[in-house]
Amino acid sequence: MFSLSSSIPVVGTHDHPSEGILKSQQQSKRHGSTVPPPSGGKTNADSTENAYSPIVHCMLAGGIGGAIGDSAMHSLDTVKTRQQGAPSTVKYKNMIGAYRTIILEEGLRKGLYGGYSGAMLGSFPSAAIFFATYEYTKRKMIGEWGINETFSHLTAGFLGDFISSFVYVPSEVLKTRLQLQGRYNNPFFRSGYNYKNLTDAVTTIVRREGWPTLFFGYKATLSRDLPFSGLQFAFYEKFRQLAFAVENKTFDEDLSLSNEIITGAAAGGLAGIITTPLDVVKTRIQTQLPDIPENSSQNLKQQTLTNSITKGMMTVYKTEGLAGLFSGVGPRFIWTSIQSSIMLLLYQVALKTLDSKLSDEKKL
After folding, report:
1. 343-358: per-residue pLDDT in tens?
2. CATH architecture under which domain 17-22+54-354 falls
3. Cβ proximity of 284 and 81 under 8 Å
4. Are 63 and 127 in contact (CB under 8 A)?
5. Which residues contact 312 (CB under 8 A, 6 or more apart)?
6. Which residues does 343 contact at the CB level (< 8 Å), separation at least 6?
7. Rounded to an integer, what distance in angstroms lies between the CA atom of residue 199 and that of residue 197?
8. Would you state the torsion angle of the CA atoms of residues 37, 38, 42, 43, taken in this order, to the nearest 10 degrees?
């Protein structure tokens, strides 16, 4: 998931936790301020709450941003999954070469966009749940309880990720298996999986492996996503602070569109690189087979991993070295960078649109 620090649209005024010192000096009371009221009184808390966008708007905007962002970057995510799930397959070693190979051999819909239905099954609802939880928790901790802003935002991000994980982890399992498989009866790459479609994947997994398999790699997924959310948030706030300084603007003004995109992309990309080893272990755990079939394209040196994150990372490092832990880092960097900037921008634009419509209705 990709957490945002503010529910205020790009064209509106902004308020950011990394700017706490300056804001406390300015005693700003503009729209959307997350500065806790000095007295912690109910009147100020209610006033702050009224200044925020409705939670339902955050849910809809987050779901829209998440679904569109995931859709735009799904093909690159497929390349990353092939590189991580089949590290010994030579034709997937190079990112551009892998992209070209998959589309030429398997096509766009069944190849590069294999597993798309599984991704969409969890994309909109999980993003909506995340943003609703994030915004509600943030407002409670800062506006009513007067807790430190940075701690509140991090806690809200972690909690949002945790609650939404009950939706997106099963979706992630289905997505990664279908991405690794590619087309049905794939003659170009044998992953060990051969599902006809999403429905067949669900029924086959539940019948043969049991429903808990849909949550296989749950700890690994959280171990990847919680640190990613925290790091992405911290980088995003710092980069925005620097961007305001570069543009010589106060925090009451808006950043340029280019810097809005750059700050989100840089934060997501850097966090993506750092958490790549965790992503590798997560992908391996969710896509590995109990027994590697003889006709599999995967090299036998790829060891079966347990649900232990630490043991999984050690196994990958011992058998494949540092390169194994960072397999797929190129596609992951590009994916997290672009997806982060798309989701951030679309979230804010959608939120502004929803808020404007609500404001117009109130005037009638």
Report:
1. 878 887 888 888 888 7
2. Alpha/alpha barrel (1.50)
3. no
4. yes
5. 220, 281, 284, 285, 305, 306
6. 2, 65, 66, 68, 69, 127, 264
7. 6
8. -70
Q: CB within 8 A of 253, min separation 6: which ones?
A: 13, 244
Structure confidence at residue 43 as a pLDDT band (50, 70, 90):
very low
190/327 Cα distance (integer angstroms): 19
Cα 115 to Cα 121: distance, rounded to the nearest angstrom: 10
Q: Is the pLDDT of residue 48 over 50?
A: no
CA pair distance 329, 316, nearest whole angstrom: 15
Cα(236)–Cα(343) distance, rounded to whole angstroms?
A: 13
**Mean per-residue pLDDT for 182-191?**
89
CA distance 269 to 277: 14
17-31, 35-49, 215-229: least confidently modelled range? 17-31
CB burial class (10 A; 0-12, 13-18, 19+) of residue 258? exposed
d(CA 46, CA 51): 9
CA distance 251 to 134: 22
Alpha helices in the chain (DSSP H): 20-26, 42-51, 55-85, 95-106, 116-139, 149-181, 198-209, 218-246, 257-274, 276-287, 309-325, 329-363
- In the chain, the N- to C-terminal Cα span, in Å, equals 38
Please choose, from the candidates 3, 33, 39, the residue with its C-alpha nearest in 3D space to the C-alpha of residue 19.
Answer: 33
